[in-house]
């Protein structure tokens, strides 16, 4: 096994599903860095059970390169794997394990690069920025970014190592998710006209959301994305307790993913306006006590960097391919740009097509390419 593969084996063994703590993994990383004389600090969340990590290789000065990766992964509950998802397993040049592609492979490559980075006698720093809770809305990295801003640290650029098959990715969509909860008035189903059916209000919202999705599909587009327009989908509906009771509660959970030029707040304002100007008043005509509330689950901004930007041109040269693309999935790149103003690209080993599914894997050849990319990036940006 290569150093990157050995570290990946160790990282995969930590079950860092977003619902669980990542502190044991972070302790492993800190011990590893300490063995090379590299100090690191943790930035904990409000519970104290999760943390981000920041470490610097090279001189402690402005400029340099940030290598960003998230340490959490999605659950394996209900999935059927050919091997233990938390034991890295090699089959035909593919390393199977939860998080191997998304995105512990890049984290492992970044850590494996540390000895070589030290030996380079860097003129500008390489920073490691490891985060938590990316998978549930890019939540964790925000405390890290606030900490960096408060400390006045000013890196020059960032690589987010999401699985892109080592292609340079110049943008990703933004996203928001909401729950809308309706209350009505429960009665026996034989007296249905005397009640207020919360599921009917929820159904009215779902139909309206379908129309919003159609409008987004007909709106602005960007050919660099595989799915060229903004999207909206309803993911969950809950409501009712029994077939013979008019339901007093119903909840619709939905998300939208927007291009940079499509305003997130305008999308939500349109949806909220429909609920409070039409759907809820109609319900209150039947039962004045009917209500509707929205809860935002997550929000992260869209990201884009000009395809002709110096960072993009340099990265294309580094990875040895002249193409680029944008991705529909969310990432922390938009937050690095919004909060710190950092030019940021996505580029990492593995494919998003095998992430979040049973038998997730990263090819050994992809990890080798990541190793080479990190070496060349340090030489290009930090020497």
Structure overview:
The protein has 383 residues and is an alpha/beta fold. The protein folds into 2 domains: 3-172 and 302-382, Zn peptidases (Aminopeptidase, 3-Layer(aba) Sandwich), CATH 3.40.630; 174-300, 2-Layer Sandwich (Alpha-Beta Plaits), CATH 3.30.70. Helices cover 34% and strands 23% of the residues. It is built from 10 helices and 16 strands. It has helices spanning 3-12, 23-34, 100-112, 114-119, 141-151, 198-217, 264-286, 310-319, 333-340, 364-382; strands at residues 40-44, 51-57, 65-70, 89-91, 94-96, 126-131, 157-160, 168-172, 174-183, 231-239, 249-258, 291-300, 303-304, 324-327, 344-346, 361-363. The strands form 4 sheets. A 6-stranded mixed beta sheet has the order 1-2-6-3-7-15, with helices on both faces. A 4-stranded antiparallel beta sheet has the order 10-11-9-12, with helices on one face. A hairpin with a 6-residue loop joins strand 1 (40-44) and strand 2. The chain starts with a helix and ends with a helix. The model has no long low-confidence stretch (mean pLDDT 97).
């Amino acid at each position: 096994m290569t150093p990157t593969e050995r570290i990946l084996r160790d990282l995969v063994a930590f079950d860092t599903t977003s619902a669980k703590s990542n502190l044991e993994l972070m302790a492993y990383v800190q011990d590893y860095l300490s063995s090379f004389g590299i100090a690191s600090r943790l930035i904990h969340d409000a519970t104290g059970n999760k943390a981000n990590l920041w470490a610097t290789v090279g001189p402690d000065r402005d400029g340099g390169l940030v290598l960003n990766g998230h340490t959490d992964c999605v659950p394996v509950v209900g999935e059927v794997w050919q091997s233990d998802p938390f034991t890295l397993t090699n089959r035909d040049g593919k390393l199977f394990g939860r998080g191997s592609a998304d995105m512990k492979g890049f984290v492992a490559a970044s850590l494996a690069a540390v000895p070589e980075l030290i030996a380079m006698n860097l003129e500008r720093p390489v920073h490691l920025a490891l985060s938590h809770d990316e998978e549930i809305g890019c939540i964790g990295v925000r405390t890290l970014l606030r900490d960096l801003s408060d400390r006045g640290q000013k890196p020059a650029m960032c690589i987010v190592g999401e699985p892109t098959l080592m292609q340079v990715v110049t943008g990703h969509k933004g996203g928001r998710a909401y729950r809308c909860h309706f209350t009505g008035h429960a009665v026996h189903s034989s007296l249905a006209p005397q009640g207020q059916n919360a599921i009917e209000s929820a159904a009215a919202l779902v139909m309206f959301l379908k129309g919003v999705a159609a409008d987004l599909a007909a709106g602005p587009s960007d050919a660099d994305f595989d799915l060229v327009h903004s999207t909206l989908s309803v993911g969950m509906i809950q409501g009712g307790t029994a077939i013979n009771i008019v339901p007093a509660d119903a909840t619709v959970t939905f998300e939208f993913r927007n291009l940079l030029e499509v305003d997130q707040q305008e999308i939500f304002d349109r949806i909220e306006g429909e609920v409070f100007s039409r759907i809820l008043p109609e319900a209150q005509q039947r039962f004045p006590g009917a209500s509707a509330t929205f809860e935002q689950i997550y929000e992260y901004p869209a990201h884009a960097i000009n395809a002709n930007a110096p960072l993009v041109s340099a990265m294309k040269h580094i990875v040895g391919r002249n193409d680029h693309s944008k991705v529909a999935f969310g990432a922390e790149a938009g937050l690095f740009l919004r909060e710190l103003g950092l030019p940021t690209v996505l580029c990492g080993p593995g494919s998003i097509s095998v992430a979040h599914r049973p038998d997730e894997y990263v090819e050994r050849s992809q990890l080798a390419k990541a190793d080479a990319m990190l070496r060349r990036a340090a030489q290009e940006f930090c020497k």
